[in-house]
């Protein structure tokens, strides 16, 4: 389908959708005993790389490794990802593991270790079993394939507490040349604005300068990954990598022209889709909860208000109970730090079951609790708050807070 009438079409696919990208996965037995737990992405041609990383002061070794790779300017060729153990709080040994993983990939693929990115997700503090990691790398190299199935397999192998794999791809034109962009991510818990326990990998065959590739990504995460929250915990391992190999053959984007803006719109669709998939698969959740703030004076004001609501545990519990407890939403807006007049706020709930106004000018209207419960019982629920101060708006995404969230995290290490 054509998204927003901009000539950007969502297609079936993920990290292997763009030309020249291959993927593979394997069961290395790192922590899980009954599933694939390692994945690899490989580009036939050198890529420009861009990345954004956790804001947590405690940074996992792979985050440090990838930051070095991205900032070094060295071309990127491969990404090796493992699930089960995060390689976080592992000291000098942890950095050594990254180097060993890169060396193993370099040997298996015939590329330089400087061109290998690494990513880990799982339990913090455990040391990686490097014999299994290196065996997994060797096993994946001959399995690399550009098929849809290989990309989907990779997206499944990087899951931890996720209940479903997450991938998306889009096709669009730059200067009359067809370009493809695809991505996959994982993330379900320890998810909070300023990136989350999430790993996201986006690949494109577009030709674009490294500087603009990084700028496009750094700008876009502000409105996508940084607008989701599941539980208020910012992870040690958050990583978003964007790789561009130029195989589409478009005229290289070196300035902020129309092609650049089209590229940014495509990137936003990919990242927003992946971000919403993570929020909607929050640990134990039953619903994706979207909050839109409209009529704001500035976009920043709208973002602060929207984030505050999706981070409110009381609001999230009300969504789980399908309870139109609008006071909790107004309360969360009130302590957000953003200034607004509560006596001007209009609030609506909407979902596939319909839309209804809950408050007008800060006061409850006469509404049907039964209809409100029906609207709030859908798997995707939206609250829209109009603060009537201007034309700016923003959206944030979270999920409901359920009994299962506590169960999952009470015994995560066992």
From TrEMBL:
Localization annotation: Cytoplasm
Site (Involved in the stabilization of negative charge on the oxyanion by the formation of the oxyanion hole): residue numbering on this chain: 121-122
A single GO cellular-component term on record: cytoplasm
SUPFAM superfamilies: DmpA/ArgJ-like
One Pfam family named in its UniProt record: ArgJ
GO process annotations (BP): L-arginine biosynthetic process; ornithine biosynthetic process
Gene3D superfamilies the record matches: arginine biosynthesis bifunctional protein suprefamily (3.30.2330.10), ArgJ beta chain, C-terminal domain (3.10.20.340), L-amino peptidase D-ALA esterase/amidase (3.60.70.12)
Catalytic residues (positions): 197 (nucleophile)
Pathway assigned to this chain's UniProt record: Amino-acid biosynthesis; L-arginine biosynthesis; L-ornithine and N-acetyl-L-glutamate from L-glutamate and N(2)-acetyl-L-ornithine (cyclic): step 1/1; Amino-acid biosynthesis; L-arginine biosynthesis; N(2)-acetyl-L-ornithine from L-glutamate: step 1/4
E.C. number(s) listed in UniProt: 2.3.1.35, 2.3.1.1
Catalytic activity entry: L-glutamate + acetyl-CoA = N-acetyl-L-glutamate + CoA + H(+); N(2)-acetyl-L-ornithine + L-glutamate = N-acetyl-L-glutamate + L-ornithine
Domain of life (superkingdom): Bacteria
Ligand binding (substrate): 160, 186, 197, 283, 409, 414
Example of a GO MF term: L-glutamate N-acetyltransferase activity, acting on acetyl-L-ornithine as donor
InterPro entries: Arg_biosynth_ArgJ, ArgJ-like_dom_sf, ArgJ_beta_C
Subunit organization: Heterotetramer of two alpha and two beta chains.
NCBIfam families xref list: ArgJ (TIGR00120), PRK05388.1 (NF003802)
HAMAP family from the UniProt entry: ArgJ (MF_01106)
Record protein name field: Arginine biosynthesis bifunctional protein ArgJ
Source organism of this protein record: Enterocloster bolteae 90A9
